[in-house]
Specification:
Blueprint: H1 31-34, H2 40-45, E1 51-55, E2 60-62, E3 71-84, E4 90-96, E5 116-128, H3 130-139, H4 141-160, E6 166-170, H5 175-186, E7 191-195, H6 201-208, E8 218-220, E9 226-228, H7 232-239, E10 250-256, H8 260-271, E11 276-280, H9 306-319, E12 323-326, E13 330-334, E14 340-344, E15 348-357, E16 361-363, E17 379-380, H10 385-390, E18 395-399, H11 403-412, E19 418-422, H12 434-442, E20 446-449, E21 453-459, E22 463-470, E23 473-477, E24 482-484, E25 488-490, E26 529-531, H13 543-578
Parallel strand pairs: 6-7, 10-11, 10-15, 11-12, 15-26, 17-24, 18-19, 18-24, 19-20
Antiparallel strand pairs: 1-5, 2-5, 3-4, 3-5, 6-8, 8-9, 13-14, 14-15, 16-25, 21-22, 22-23
Biased composition (Pro residues): 1-12
Protein name: Thioredoxin reductase
Domain Cyclic nucleotide-binding: 34-154
Length: 579
Amino acid sequence: MTTPPKSPPSPPSQNNSGVPTVDGADPYQREEQTFPTLKESHLDRIQSFCAKETVKDGALLFERGQRSVDFFIILSGAVEIFDTDDQGNANVFTVHRKNQFTGELDLFNDREILVSGRASGVTEVLRFKRADFRRMVVAEPDIGEIIMRAFILRRVGLIQHIQGGVTVIGRKQDALTLQIDRFLTRNGYPHRMLDIDEDEDSASAMEGFSIDRGDLPVVILPDGQLVKAPTDKELADALGLTEELRPDHLYDLAVIGAGPSGLAAAVYGASEGLETIIVEKLAPGGQAGTSSKIENYLGFPTGISGQALAGRAQIQAQKFGAKLAISRNATGLDCDGDYNKIILEGDEAICARALVIATGASYRKLNLENDEKFEGQGIHYAATPMEAKLCQNEEVAVIGGGNSAGQAAMFLSQTAKHVHLLIRSNSLAASMSSYLIDRLEASPKVTIRFGTAITELIGENHLESLRWKGPEGIEDRDIRNVFVMIGAVPNTGWIGDCLQLDGCGFIRTGSDCKGEPTDSPYMTSRAGVVAVGDVRSGSVKRVASGVGEGSVVIQAVHKYLSDQKEAEMQRAEAQTEMA
């Protein structure tokens, strides 16, 4: 049915791309699901959504870098899927034949696509325009399920086999290199990392592209262009990850923040017919997206990583038509007009009738000398397989007494030599789930140090050792990696004076600007603006509660929009009568 990938590398043992997969298996070996063949009865049912075409041999159906490409089902002939290497050479790694179809996850958004497709021989196809493809997936759910599963597995295959991606050259211990790696990984973008201290290929790549060490880290794009030491926004723009915004367009709903609560609001808003846009600073998942495993989330008895959960949710939201604007940081809120205008970094803006604020909270820092200097170079705020690779067979320290710290300690104990869990208090009972406490206490590779705090961070360019003070006095340890999980502060600085905040900066909900109770416990002091998740004053800081708030709040959004439309109609009628 398909040609196998050309000399594929061994897939990694654990996928942390944010794209859901099963057991880390190679999806290219699961041809019936990754490259399914549709039945004739399927084709009969979807004829009204497409047009039949015949294309000549070698004709390009779509090309890497294009947006909003069409969906094709092959009736006869074949379609080759290929990417290009850094020198521009084509590599055909999949061939779709009779009753198979093209595409992967980018058909659910308007990002630049990762691969190209061309006809092999004279080929007859069914062509679905993007809007018709979306209608077909919704109208025929069983066919849509086949397509969705295949698209997810194909993206996992691209990531595992590094197809349709980019090359990153740098030092893995360098903060900016780690930031680039994290950004690409959390956004499910295929990429190859070359460490100049470990990978032999890095020297030839640097020579071939005339890269100086002072330029590092560098991202090599498929067309051979170089992006030197990029910010997240610069990298997102270079890769076409950001969807084009329409500043003159009025959305029904804008969701600011793509953590669990924001993604839930987007899924339910878009699925119920609201034109929805999600704005996210970094990548879907929020703080929960950095959790190595969530074991108490309903329906996942063996646990699920925060990133995988977020990956599933963003695919759901996009399936229902929500737009996702990645690497777009909200910097201000204009609340003087009838609608909500969100000011974005780079002088961009979007407008929406209703607004869901789900910006969560930022990691609280140690406030020690050198803590900013060592961020990404010894100090981490997440424990994922990416960070775990940096401290294999080394002693590490985790700071914090909550579930996130406990999960991080258990996860790191799988690869680290030993894990020291440092907490200021003398008990974990008030802040951590009992199942985690039992597990930590039973692990021979974890030491819980009560009443202990770090007093000094030591090192030149990278963290080299720690000094902490505990019940037994001051102690120095040769620990090069510290995981800080000591709470967070709300991301509300961009809101200005538009909404009422509590004394800690969280958004007050449940009362209007006059202090009168609102119809919804999630409505803020400004009508039409709701707050959910960690950013809301009094919220329960759990993934499940955030998802719950994001889903139920859409009822309040619908009521507000309905009241607004009715008021607009009444004003229009009054103006007509006056005329």
